[in-house]
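Working notes for the structural subgroup meeting. M.R. asked for a predicted model of this chain before we commit to crystallization trials. I am recording the input and output together here so anyone reviewing the notebook later can reproduce the run.

Input as submitted:
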Amino acid sequence: MGESKLKLAKREEMLLSCAGVQTMAGRVQVRWETESAATPMGQLAYFIEFLNLTGLWSRWLEGCPLNYVSPNAPSKAEVLGTWLLSMLAGHRRYSHVTTIRCDGINPGLLGMRKVISEDALRNALKRIPEGEGIAWLDTHLADSVAPLLDAAWILDTDTTIKPLYGHQEGALIGYNPRKPGRPSHAYHTYLMAGLRQVLGVEVRAGNEHTAKHAQPGQLKILDALPPQRKPRLVRGDNAFGNDPLMMALEEREQPYLFKLKLSKNVKRHIGSLFRQSGWMDAGQGWEGLFIANASSTVGQALVPAGLEKSIGLITGAYTKGPTDPQWAKDPDMIEWKNWMAKYYPTGNNTDYFNVFGYMSAQLMTAVLKQAGDNLTRENILQQATSIRNMKSGMLLPGITMNTRVCSQLLKPDESASQANER
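Returned structure, recorded in token form:
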């Protein structure tokens, strides 16, 4: 094959390797060069196409509370584009912006006429009102993670100490394990466990690094979420197991799991448990004292495990036990046994779930009675989620049933009122 034919074949191969990318500057052709060295910003054109086609870039610009009067001032695209390109390049200081001013491709793809100077960028960000700027960024951050919150997830809080070497606002001396005595900032980060997807970050002074300083931001995120997107669990270490935070979460009916801080009272309580009799070998070097809820049913848990092994165990059951002698002459217990004999003679009277099913039927009966003749789905749902202090003969004295709206009753992206409209 001649030299001219080789050049033609190479050109055709090059054209076939080109990919069209739709950017803010229009459609451009991107070609891979297998013989060239890879660069950190080489694939940025595809990210710019993503920002363009999804509308994220245009919405970010439109919502930015930055306004100029002078006709010589830089545009929003130039300010935010310089900011974005600098962060994507891994810059940590305004002075580093200078290194991207020689980029002749990516700024144009973002619709920028130029990369502004470090002073222009610093002054532009100063012009953004703090309150409006935080609301602008928080809104776009929330929109970027909202679709992920339809699945069950756990909210974690992480605090990072960042040592500082200048005179930044809030640069105070506090807890700093790596650089003791060095001023720092405390970054309280709220994120999805497992994915490490960030929902928000709050920058506090270096001496505001404790759990109580992370609490306002944590509650702010929880209060902003609709019921169907709230976390199944709020998780934290023993620093978060404090009364103010736990009370705030309980007021919001938000489940949580924190490590227990070994205070004097906790140690005293644990010591009192150790002095109780009834500790049994639980295997692998462990001993057990507590079992809870359905695990305490005689027929389904204790008998298969061996009744002799349950001596001294404390259960967390909230129903009357059919095999407990103290309820042998109880009118409600007699009524339940008669009901079992009539409608379920082959059923096991020691099975906890037969008691549970009986109470569930009582609850459903109460819902239908409250609904009256209006048996529409809307009214049934309304009555089923508004039971208050209902008594059942099979519940232990002092325990009542209450119901409320929860996320399991709703479809994704649907509030309680919308659910009632379906």
